[in-house]
Amino acid sequence: MDSAVLSVARSRFIWLAAGPTRVWAIARSPSGLWRIILLGSIPIVDIFAGPGGLGEGFGALTLNGGNVFESVAAIEMESSAHSTLTLRHAFRDLDRRGRVPNVYYRFARGEVEYQALWDDPEMGAALDRASKRVHRLELGEDTRAESDALIKETLQGEDNWVLVGGPPCQAYSLVGRSRRANDEAFEEDKKHFLYREYLHIITTFLPSVFVMENVKGLLSSTHGGQPMFERILDDLRNIGGEAEYEIFSLTKPGSPETLNPKDFIIRAEEFGVPQQRHRVILLGIRKDLGRKPRTLVRADTQVTVRDAIHDMPAIRSRISKGIDSAANWVSLRADANDALADDGIAALTYLNDPGPLSNDFIHTAPKRSNAEGAAAKFRSWIEDTRLGGFAGHVSRGHMASDLQRYFFASAFALKHGRSPVLSDFSEGLTPNHQSARSEKKSFADRFKVQVWDKPSSTVVSHIAKDGHYYIHPDPCQMRSLSIREAARLQSFPDNYVFLGNRTQQYTQVGNAVPPYLAHQIAKIVSELVAK
Questions:
Q1: The pLDDT value given to residue 275
Q2: d(CA 451, CA 330)
Q3: What average pLDDT does this structure show over 27-42?
Q4: Whole-angstrom distance, CA of residue 160 vs CA of residue 171
Q5: How many C-beta atoms surround the C-beta of residue 394 within 10 A?
Q6: Does residue 349 carry a pLDDT above 80?
Q7: Under a CB-based contact definition with an 8 Å cutoff, are residues 396 and 467 in contact?
Q8: Torsion of CA 396, 448, 446, 395, to 10 degrees
Q9: What domains lie within the chain, and their CATH numbers?
Q10: What mean pLDDT do residues 35-58 have?
C-alpha cells in the first residue's frame, strides 16, 4: 500500500477533493496535527522527452511520502533515448512503491544483461507498465491522430494536469543557424514549427499548466523576417477555443505584459546546477485558474565542477590511433609534462597512476562528502549508495597529439584559472588545419578545459562528436569527460542508466534539461495545481 495511503488509514481524515487520477485528503496524525495528504499524483505528459530530464525532475518531487506528479505519457522519437526513458519510467514506478529490486543495480553495474530486467518479476512488470506509457513517435501533422488518441486515453478526462517538453532546438540554436546560414532549405526546415505540435496539444487538451523549454538562440531566431519568439508567444497566448493562457517568467516576478524576452532565460548555474546552461523556459498557466507563480530561489553559492566530479575515480582514455597500452599512454604523458617548460609552465612534480582503462562500471567504496550549502543539496540529489560505484564512467579514445594538447590545456588551467585559447598554445601544439591556423573567432577556444572551481560550460550534444570542448581539469588523466561526468554536470542522478551506444549516450546527456533544475520548477508548478 502507498505510504501516503497508510498514513491516512492510521489517521482521522476527511476528503477534500477527488478526481480520475488522484485524491486529496486532510488527515490528523496521532499527535493531533492536521496535514494535507496527496493520494495518487497529478498527471504530467512529457513530449519531445529525450532521455527524460524534465520528467525526472517532476517525477522525483514528493510530499509527505507521496509523489506529487506522475508521468502518464511520454513521447520521444529517437530509439536510444526512448529506451533510456522507458527504463527510467520503470525505475520511477518501482521507486515510488519503495522497492527498486537489486537486479536494476546489477544491470547498472554491468553484472547482468538487459534481458535479466524483464526476467525479474517486479522489474519486468514495471517495464511492461512503462512500455504502455512511453511512446516512440515523431510528433507532427501526420501523427496527430495517433498522439491525440494516446493522450486522450491516458488523461481519462482529467482536467488538472501538466504538459512539459522542449521542441527540438536545432533550428533555433546559434550554432545550428550559423552552420546553415547559406542553406536555402533551412527556411523550410520543419523543426521551425514543431512548437505547433506543442500548441496543438495545449489547444486540444487544455492543461492547467505547461512548461516549454528551448535554447537561448530562440530569442534571436527569425523565420521569413519575423522573430520566432514573438510568434511563439503570440500563438501560446491566443490559442483560441475554450481557454486562454498567461505566460510567466520563472526568474523575474511581474505580470506577463511587463516582461521582455530576456526575462525568460534561466541560468542553470544560479540554481545549483554545476553548469553554465542558459535556456529559455516558459511557464504557461490557464487563466481560469487565477493563479500567479513564485519565482525560482537562487542558490546561496554556485556548485562547481569540483563539487560535481572530484570524487570520481581517475581513469585513462584509450589511444585511438597507435599502440593503446598503459605504458605508451604514460610515456605520452611524460613527454607532454616535459614539454610544459616550452609553454612557460613548470612541469608537474606529481604524476598520479593513470588509473584503469575507462570502463562501463567502476566499483568504489562510498566517500563521505564534506559539501555544504548548495553543493550539499546537489550531492544529495545525485548520490545513491546502493550502486557501489560509478556506471558509465567511460572516456572516449583520443589521438596522441590531442592527448598532449589536453595535458597542456588542463595544466594551463591549473596555473591561470582559465581555459587556454589557441593563441596560448605553442606552435607544436596548434592544430594543423586552416580554421585553427587563422584562428577564426569560432575556433578561438577549440580546446576548452572545464575548470575545477567554476561551473562547467554548457554540455551539449556535440560532446558526442569530440571531447575538445570538455577536457577534464586534472592533467594527470589527460582526457575528455566521461559519460557519467557529463551526466553529473547535467545533474542526472548516479542511478540514471543511459542505453544505446556511447555516442548515443553522450547525445542524450547533452540534449537534456538538467533534472535538478526541473525538480525546482516542479515545486513551483505543484503549488499552482495543488491549491
A1: 98
A2: 23
A3: 57
A4: 32
A5: 22
A6: no
A7: yes
A8: 0
A9: 1-40 (no CATH), 305-510 (3.90.120)
A10: 86
Average pLDDT over residues 310-323: 89
Q: How confident is the model over 446-453, as a mean pLDDT?
A: 94
Question: Scanning the structure block, which residue is given the C-alpha cell 562510498?
Answer: 366
The three three-digit cell numbers of residue 513, written as one number: 534539461
The yes-or-no verdict on residue 337 having pLDDT over 50 is yes
CB burial of 158-171 (b: ≥16 within 10 Å; e: otherwise) equals: bebbbbbbbbbbbb
- Cell 551526466 belongs to 487
The x, y and z cell numbers of residue 309, run together, are: 566530479
Q: Which three cell numbers stand for residue 246?
A: 498567461
How far is residue 184's CA from residue 205's CA, in Å, rounded to a whole number?
Answer: 36
* Diameter of the chain measured on Cα atoms: 77
The three cell numbers of residue 29 are 496524525
Treating both helix axes as pointing N-terminal to C-terminal, what angle do 228-237 and 195-205 enclose, rounded to 10 degrees? 10
Cα distances (angstroms) measured from residue 122 to each of 99, 117, 129, 316, 497:
9, 9, 11, 38, 18
Q: How many CB atoms lie within 10 A of CB 433?
A: 10
Residue 80 to residue 508: CA distance in whole angstroms: 8
What's the pLDDT tens digit per position in 8-23? 444 444 544 444 445 5
Closest CA to 363 of 343, 338, 388: 388
Q: What is the pLDDT of residue 75?
A: 98
Report d(CA 451, CA 448) in Å as an integer.
Answer: 9
81 falls in which pLDDT band (50, 70, 90)?
very high
Q: Which class for 295: exposed (0-12), middle (13-18), buried (19 or more C-beta within 10 A)?
A: middle
Residues 511 and 213: their CA atoms lie apart, in Å, by 11
